[in-house]
Amino acid sequence: MARARLRDLGLTVGVLPTGELNAITDVAGVEVGYSTVIADTPRVVRTGVTAIWPRRDIWTDYVFAGTFSFNGNGEMTGLPWIAEQGTLGAPIGITNTYQVGIVRDAICALAVRDGASQLFHLPVVAETYDGWLSDIQGFALTQAHALAAFDSAKGGPIAEGNVGGGAGMICHEFKGGTGTASRVVTVDDARYTVGALVQANYGLRDLLRVGGVPVGREIGPDVVPAHRSGSSSGEAGSIIVILATDAPLLPIQCQRLARRATTGLAWVGGIGANGSGDIFLAFATGNHLGQTETITNVRMLAPAAMDGLFRAAAEATEEAILNALCMAETMTGREGRVVHALPLDRLQSVMRRYRPELRG
Question: Which range is least confidently modeled, 71-80, 180-189, 220-229?
C-alpha cells in the first residue's frame, strides 16, 4: 500500500480544523527545506538536515520564541540566549546527534554569505540519534549539505517521512522521521494558525496509540518485527518539536505554547523516557521585531485567550508524529538492519475495529 498521510487514510485525530496544507507552512512566511543523504558506500549513510525559516527576513526581523525540555537527554543549541532575550534571529536546523556543530556553523556561514548585519549569531540546531540505521561515526554531512537544506526551503506542501534530519529515525519501533500538521483557532474575529514540525525518533511499540486506540499493541512485534525486540533500549531516542504560530505572542507565551507539545506527544504514547531528548521550541510571527528601533511596539494575545492555541499545539503535535509514521518507508541501514514502516492497511483495520463510525 502506498504511503499516505493520516487523513488521506480516512483517519483523523483531534477536533480543531487544520490549515489548508495541514503543515507548519500554513503559518504565513514559514519555509521548510531538506538535505537528505542516502549512501551505501564507502559507509552506510541514512541522515540529513531539516531547515526551518520562521520568515525569510529573519536576520533583520526577529520573532519571539520560547522553549521547553520535557526530558533533556538531547541537544538544542542557542537556548540560553532565547531564555535570556526571548527572540530568534536565524533559521532553525535539525539533524543527527553527531553533526549539530556543522549545521550550526553552516547557519553562521549563511548569515555571512547573505550579508546579515549582526556581529555574531547563536543559532538554534537540534538533533536526534540515527545511529541504528546510519553509520553516524562517519560524519557524512558537510557544510554544503546544510546550506543546501536552507537554500532549498520553500512554503507550500512539504515532504515527510524519510527526509532531511528524519531520514534515519525510528518511532515506536516503526520507521519514523519528519512529520508536520497544523490547526486553526478563532479568537473573537481573528483566526490564528499553529503549525508543528517534528523529528520523531522515540518510543516503545506497545505504547503507540492513534486517537486513543492501542495500535502498538494490536500491531506488535509478532505482527511486524521491531528493530530491537526484547530490549529495554527501545525506550531510548528523542523527539524534536518546532511549533510556529502567527498569533501575537510574547516570549513567555511562546514558552507556554512549547510546553503543550508534551500533551500531543503523550497522546501518541511518548513518556519522556530517561534516554530520550524531548525538546520543544515555539516561535510566534505575529510581531515584527526590527533591529534598528530603540522602542518596538508589540501586541500580546490575552492570557485567557491562550486555551485555543494550547489545544492547537497539542493536536498539531499529535498529528505531526502520526504523519511521520504514516509517510515513512521501510528502511534497511547499516549491518543490514531493517526498520519496518507502520503497515497502513493494518492501521486502517485496527482503527475500524475500535471505531465503528469508520466501518461504513
Answer: 220-229
